[in-house]
Automatic annotation (TrEMBL), chain A:
This is ABC transporter ATP-binding protein. One of its GO terms (molecular function) is ATP hydrolysis activity. Residues 4-239, 256-500 form the ABC transporter domain. InterPro entries: AAA+_ATPase (IPR003593), ABC_carbohydrate_import_ATPase (IPR050107), ABC_transporter-like_ATP-bd (IPR003439), ABC_transporter-like_CS (IPR017871), P-loop_NTPase (IPR027417). The keyword ATP-binding applies. It comes from Candidatus Cryosericum septentrionale.
From TrEMBL, chain B:
It holds the Pfam family BPD_transp_2. GO terms for cellular component: plasma membrane. This is ABC transporter permease. One of its GO terms (molecular function) is transmembrane transporter activity. It is a multi-pass membrane protein.
Length: 507, 315
């Protein structure tokens, strides 16, 4: 039986056809993947199916009956549930409160919290997804937060589950766990729609795969009849190099060095507990680690956002421990951020303005207090061409660009600054195949040009593919150093979780 | 000071506290749902004038109170219409309401009563002996004696605090209100109508601000003064923040600010500090407000989506 059928669905946003005449059907008990690059229209399509957006045209059928889904309430009544890309959790509420909102156990108008807790515990036991029903959602790791999301939709009796890029925030171990859960749900007869742009995962979990490109359905394939390369080609519309080529460069002098660095986090706890590392010219040093093990604080200290409590930090032989970000940049530091919205760009500003930020003071972009916008414009036009930033109008705001193009804009700016040390902090987070490939190419070009590069990433394939040396970070310390040819994803994954580390080293 | 004097001082302190408390409760409810309402000072001014108007013509403070509630709802609906229906800027809408309230009430005062500065005094107000809540068994107990003879509005303030606490933390509706203030998108994905909840919270909140205004003109005082509410609405906002957006926190903060007011009037009346310029003591409650906010704001966390308009189809 067809659990869900989509017939000629279109969705028009102002100036953008996000979904163009899309039709497919999903069998009951099937894991159906929808892949596509960022901005291909996957999330829009899911939001239509789930009643958050109203389609501009087309029909939806659930269990072979035509339905109108005008609101999320309608979707929930039709036994659909969605696990969103950004979790729909309220950090200040307990796990139980988060799970029951919208369908609360109650006595009259009063919320029956005690019964809610019992119901959540029963449910979590029945589907064996372990959660602490009374913990605050905000205190839990992302893997557990996702479990809360899944429990939330199961409690509402969902038969069709939509997972919108569920692995984007998970560690490799958590991803494995999620897939086990998904298989179990499938075995219970649930229908699953799995949205992703990670082809490896899609090939592992899906039965059938639909590929979207620029709002259009490119085709639907059976997993057993396809492979990653074919999917990538369908997604991007051309051949993509998923393998990262090896580039050998002679290693130069030490560009950046820190010794016994201690850094406190915002709440005043020591998050970096004595790190020492060196990055040489022509070398990519990768830092692997599960999110929240001190990487953010390390980067903050390195870019001058916070000052280390103790330890030394040198850039090109000069002491840089208590200096400002401006001084670090002057000395030759560039920084590609993972957080484009908050750190990389000023979203309401134009491409033109963003392209010179940081070098806008002084010639050639300003004279005295006056900005020379002709020069800025010329520069921006050049960069837009060189980096193929689309749609290519320098008067567009940064916020109107897609994630990939935003990242290209950041690269364009940071790599055009005079620098010999580059910090790349999760440089491909949230990017699709095409944009990721672009970032890799640029990083390797930098390496060829003899720059020193520190790569901080949660993606092990990226760390293994790009780095010359790999440092594993766990609880604010380096717990292992290796090279890509001497290790595997599995071995790194265990180190990242602190498995097999000598207790003496830790204490 | 004698026991009687102490009791009177406490009662007067509560008279100062309640308008601040109602304003703070308005803020707590509205902002818990994610809508900032800095227009509540203006709504209090509406409430103060219309409360007096109702009481004046009907000779009953109860009708005055209903007038205060009605005008509060009405102005609240305006704020909701601008900020929820049309996603207008919440600060701009609030400021506009404050500005309108200043001019319109001055005009109406002259138009209705043909006076400037003060409305005629009324006999039937909640502060009058006939309208007080008499609890003679408390009169003999030290300190609690102050509670033996209070205006109905003071008890109503305490009741509203408890009701608000129950609403926000023990009812289904309260959980949903707080969800809308923390993460409206999450609320939508759970099938909650964010717009409806926000309308409710803004209007009921504004009704409380209207009550707060009426408390000034028909309970704490027996008439409308053109300077009302004299910044009480803003002190109420401060009390809301200091009270960490919770009803009981707001009560505690309002009591503190009320104490500041009474200390100021004691200094002024007794001439303890004759060297000070007479106007200078008047700023004491406001200095206290500033000091408290500067010291505590950092530790007090607003609802995550407070003040943000909600667009359902935002990309």
């Amino acid at each position: 039986m067809k659990a869900l059928e989509v017939r000629s669905i279109s969705k028009m946003f102002p100036g953008n056809l996000a979904n163009d005449n899309i039709s497919f059907s999903v069998e009951k008990g099937e894991i159906f993947a929808i892949v596509g690059e960022n901005g291909a229209g996957k999330s829009t399509l899911m939001n239509i199916i789930y009643g958050i957006y109203t389609p501009s045209g087309g029909d939806l059928l659930v269990n072979e009956n035509e339905v109108k889904i005008r609101s999320v309430e309608d979707a929930i009544k039709l036994r659909m549930g969605m696990v969103h890309q950004e979790f729909m959790l309220i950090p200040r509420f307990t796990v139980t409160q988060n799970i029951v909102i919208g369908d609360e156990p109650h006595k009259g108008i009063f919320f029956d919290y005690g019964r809610a807790v019992r119901e959540v515990r029963e449910l979590s036991e029945r589907v064996s997804l372990t959660v602490d029903a009374t913990a605050l959602a905000g205190d839990l790791p992302v893997g557990v937060q996702q479990r809360i999301e899944i429990l939330k939709v199961l409690r509402r009796g969902a038969e069709i589950l939509i997972f919108d890029e569920p692995t984007a925030v998970l560690t490799p171990e958590e991803t494995v766990e999620l897939f086990v859960t998904m298989r179990k749900l499938q075995a219970e007869g649930k229908t699953i729609l799995f949205i992703s742009h990670k082809l490896k995962e899609v090939m592992e979990i899906a039965d059938r795969i639909a590929v979207l490109r620029r709002g259009k359905l490119q085709g639907i394939v059976n997993k057993k009849d396809t492979n990653e390369e074919e999917l990538a080609r369908m997604m991007v519309g051309r051949n993509v190099v998923l393998e990262i080529p090896k580039v050998d460069v002679e290693v130069g002098a030490v560009a950046f060095a820190c010794h016994d660095l201690h850094v406190r986090n915002k709440r005043g706890y020591e998050a970096v507990k004595g790190m020492s590392l060196e990055v040489h010219g022509g070398e990519i040093v990768g830092i692997a680690g599960v999110q929240g093990n001190g990487q953010d604080e390390l980067v903050n200290a390195m870019i001058g956002f916070s000052h280390p409590v103790s330890g030394s930090m040198e850039l090109n032989g000069k002491n840089m421990r208590m200096v400002t970000t401006a001084q670090l940049r002057k000395e030759g530091m560039s920084y590609i951020t993972e957080d484009r919205g908050r750190r990389g760009l000023v979203m309401p500003y134009t491409v033109r303005e963003n392209s010179v930020m940081g070098q806008h003071l002084g010639r050639p972009f300003s004279k005295g207090i006056r900005m020379d916008y002709d020069k800025v414009g010329e520069f921006a036009e050049g960069k837009v061409k060189e980096y193929d930033i689309r749609p290519g109008d320098v008067y567009d705001t940064a916020g109107s660009l897609s994630g990939g193009n935003q990242q290209k804009l950041i690269l364009a700016r940071e790599l055009s600054l005079p620098h010999n040390f580059l910090i790349a902090s999760q440089p491909t987070r949230g990017l699709d195949v095409g944009a990721t490939e672009f970032v890799y190419r640029k990083l390797l070009e930098e390496k060829k040009a003899g720059k020193a590069i520190l790569l901080i990433s949660l993606e092990l394939s990226e760390i293994l593919g790009l780095s010359d040396r790999i440092l594993v970070m766990f609880e604010g310390r380096i717990v292992g150093e290796t090279t890509p040819d001497k290790t595997t994803e599995e071995a790194l994954g265990l180190l990242m979780l602190g498995v097999g580390i000598d207790k003496k080293v830790q204490s | 000071m004698s026991i009687i004097q102490i009791n009177l001082t406490i009662a007067q302190m509560l008279d100062y506290t309640m308008p601040i408390l109602f304003a703070a409760l308005c803020g707590v409810l509205s902002e818990s749902a994610g809508v900032v309402n800095i227009g509540l000072d203006g709504i209090m001014r509406f409430g103060a004038f219309f409360g007096l108007l109702g009481a004046f013509f009907s000779h009953s403070p109860w009708i005055g109170l209903l007038f205060g509630i009605a005008i509060g709802c009405l102005v609240g609906a305006l704020h909701a219409f601008i900020t929820i229906r049309w996603n207008g800027d919440q600060t701009v809408s609030g400021v506009a309401i404050n500005v309108i309230a200043v001019g319109l009430m001055t005009y109406l005062l002259e138009y209705v009563f043909s006076t400037t500065g003060y409305s005629p005094q009324i006999q039937n107000y909640f502060g009058a002996q006939a309208y007080r809540v008499h609890l003679p068994f408390l009169a003999k107990i030290p300190l609690l004696g102050a509670f033996s003879n209070l205006s109905f509005m003071i008890w109503f303030g305490f009741i509203c605090t408890v009701l608000m606490h129950v609403l926000l933390y023990h009812t289904v509706l309260g959980l949903r209100i707080r969800t809308c203030g923390e993460n409206p998108k999450a609320a939508t994905t759970l099938g909650i109508n964010v717009f409806r909840i926000r309308w409710f919270a803004v209007i009921v909140g504004a009704a409380l601000a209207g009550i707060g205004g009426a408390t000034l003109s028909i309970s704490s005082f027996s008439g409308f003064s053109d300077s009302m509410p004299n910044g009480v609405g803003f002190i109420g906002l401060a009390a809301m923040i200091f009270g960490k957006w919770t009803p009981f926190g707001a009560l505690g903060a309002a009591l503190l600010f009320g104490t500041g007011q009474i200390v100021q009037s004691i200094i002024a009346v007794t001439g303890i500090a004759p060297k000070l310029a007479p106007g200078l003591t008047l700023i004491l409650p406001y200095v206290l407000t500033l000091a408290v906010l500067a010291g505590f704001v950092g530790k007090s966390i607003a609802p995550a989506a407070d003040g943000l308009p909600y667009y359902k189809e935002q990309r």
